[in-house]
Specification:
This protein has about 550 residues and is mainly beta. It has 2 domains: about 300 residues, no CATH class; about 200 residues, no CATH class. About 10% of the residues lie in helices and about 35% in strands. The strands form 7 sheets. Strands 16-17-18-19-20-24-23-22-21 form a 9-stranded antiparallel sheet. Strands 1-6-7-10-11 form a 5-stranded antiparallel sheet, with no helix packed on it. The radius of gyration is 22 Å and the shape is globular. It comes from Xaviernesmea oryzae. Keywords: Signal. This is Phosphatase. InterPro entries: PhoX.
């Protein structure tokens, strides 16, 4: 039986306890002056703030503990070689590489009693769980899975394959988001797959038992998922909108922020009420989705006001689905959100509660259009943003929506985020190959100070200037002709899975309950250099 374990004397905290001065410096890292330049055909090393270092805790080529069939490695499925063989040619009928599974958002937990494929092995007490957002398709169905990095284990036992099918025997979807629900004592996994997406719950025992909840949460492109102190589940939907035919490279606001209130927070299968956020323009008009007015939505007064510093817009939660009234048949959440008058946003992706604020402030990212040429520009959120929902308590019906940070060409495509401390958010870019080439710069990770005045020219601190590994460099070149050749793997590396946690698996350990102290008191920092070699790192204070 799995037991929850929490201690302030965790292994990763040794750096801080042995070197408190260095840990203090690491908690306030120095700005990295510039991003890593993108040069065709050239790999590049990642640059961290000088106070920081990183350790690879899992690599894409690591064989899985419990590997079976095509479920072979941490970052690859066993349907081909890990890199193209000499002289091999990509075509629509022949792939030169295995599918890269792209491990995504991380969830760190301190547990005891965890088992794996080797019944005689001690897997330790420190674990990092993640879904994988890409997979081989068989008969049109993705063959997804989720994994557990055993941080205390040797390489042969480092990454355990937790599950490949649900309890009904159906293949798992490809997963993006994850979080631990201490009320239900389940891991929540989300899939940003539209009408195939949704929320799954998974047990921590081995092998994990995975259950779908499509009649409760519905189908949508859910990615970000967090729990508040009342047991509500907040979901952030990542689905890009239609591209305008007249506004160059600009995309329609399309997806939503949701809140689910369970009837029984210890058993999500009992159903509850799903709501989505609606905000109003300064004149009081609700901002809604218009299928027949793409350009009007892109340049609406509400979208402009939302992406203006100093503007606070009235918002409220509108009901999308209630199992007491609507039953538990699967449904399409975003269609119901549109019908209910919820407000679409510029590709929101992930969100977190600000620590020390009693779950009254929820910050989330918008990725934007990931193209420097977007006609939406900065004024209409084309380069992304960090937005803030403020309300009297996490279950309140009314809220206020405002801008915390507005992206620009140099700071764009923000995706995953984590609170670094009570006043600072770590955000990482996922700007994509096109924008990388346009701005001649790869992705970066930034620390956004919520006390700073970005309206007056303050700049966030770059603490990661991501490079590009050799595999990603090859894939970037191959993907340039992907439409002609059928090459499916992504190109340049992406920053994902930024995660700051002390691993406390109790209700008191909910993200947002306590103010993080990175590199001290058991708080650890992780991220994944997705695509290419698919390496997950722990950031530590440099010795």
């Amino acid at each position: 039986m799995t037991k929850l374990l929490y201690s302030t004397a965790l292994a990763a905290g040794l750096f801080a306890s042995l070197c408190p001065a260095m840990a203090g410096d690491a908690a306030h890292p120095t700005h990295v002056a510039k991003p890593v330049e993108k040069v065709d055909g050239q790999p590049a090393e990642t640059v961290l703030s000088p106070e920081l270092s990183q350790i690879a805790v899992a690599k894409g080529a690591m064989k899985l503990d419990g590997a079976t069939g095509i479920f072979h490695s941490y970052g690859y499925q066993g349907d081909g070689p890990l890199v193209p063989a000499a002289g091999d040619q990509q075509s629509k009928t022949h792939d030169v590489e295995a599918v890269k599974t792209e491990p995504d958002k991380n969830t760190y937990l301190v547990l005891e009693g965890q088992k794996g494929a080797d019944p005689a092995y001690d897997y330790g007490t420190h674990f990092l769980f993640q879904g994988h957002e890409s997979a081989v398709k068989i008969d049109g169905k993705p063959q997804g899975y989720f994994t557990r990095i055993n941080l205390d284990a040797d390489e042969a036992h480092r990454v355990t394959l937790m599950a490949t099918h649900d309890i009904e025997g159906q293949p798992l979807e490809t997963y993006d988001g994850s979080t631990w629900d201490p009320f239900a004592k389940k891991l929540l996994l989300t899939a940003e797959e539209g009408k195939q997406g949704g929320v799954w719950i998974a047990t921590l025992d081995y092998p994990s038992k995975v259950t779908t909840l499509h009649g409760v949460f519905g189908h949508a492109s859910y990615e970000g998922v967090q729990i508040d102190k009342d047991g509500n589940i907040w979901l952030v939907e990542d689905a890009g909108g239609k591209t305008s035919k007249t506004l160059e490279k600009a995309k329609q606001p399309n997806s939503f922020v949701y809140r689910f209130t369970p009837k029984d927070k210890t058993d999500l299968s009992k159903g509850g009420k799903l709501q989505a956020l609606q905000y109003s323009a300064p004149d009081g008009t609700p901002v809604t989705f218009h299928a027949d007015d793409v350009d009007g939505d892109i340049k609406s007064a509400g979208i402009k006001a939302l992406h203006t510093y100093g503007t606070a817009l009235k918002a409220k939660w509108v009901t999308v689905h209630d199992t007491d009234k609507d039953g538990t048949e699967p449904f399409i959440a975003y269609e119901r959100a549109r019908a209910a008058g919820a407000s679409p946003l510029k590709r929101p992706e992930n969100g977190l509660f600000r620590p020390g604020k009693d779950f009254t402030e929820f910050y989330f990212t918008e990725t934007g259009d990931t193209n420097v040429k977007t006609a939406a520009g900065r004024e209409y959120g084309g380069f992304g943003a960090v937005l803030k929902i403020k309300q009297a308590n996490p279950s309140a019906d009314d809220a206020e929506l405002s801008l915390a940070y507005l992206g620009d060409v140099a700071h764009s495509g923000v995706d995953n985020l984590a609170f670094w401390d009570g006043d600072t958010i770590a955000v990482v870019e996922d700007d994509g190959d096109t924008a990388h080439s346009q701005r001649k710069a790869l992705d970066s990770g930034y620390l956004i100070d919520l006390k700073a005045d970005y309206a007056k020219g303050a700049e966030p601190v770059r603490f990661i200037a991501e490079g590009r590994d050799p595999s990603a460099t090859i894939d970037s070149a191959l993907s340039e002709k992907g439409e002609e050749t059928g090459f499916k793997n992504d190109g340049d590396n992406e920053l994902t899975g930024i995660h700051v946690s002390d691993g406390n698996a109790t209700i008191e350990g909910l993200l947002g309950m306590k103010v993080p102290t990175p590199f001290a008191n058991g708080w650890r920092v992780f991220y994944t250099q997705q695509h290419g070699d698919n390496i997950t790192y722990e950031i530590v204070a440099k010795k």
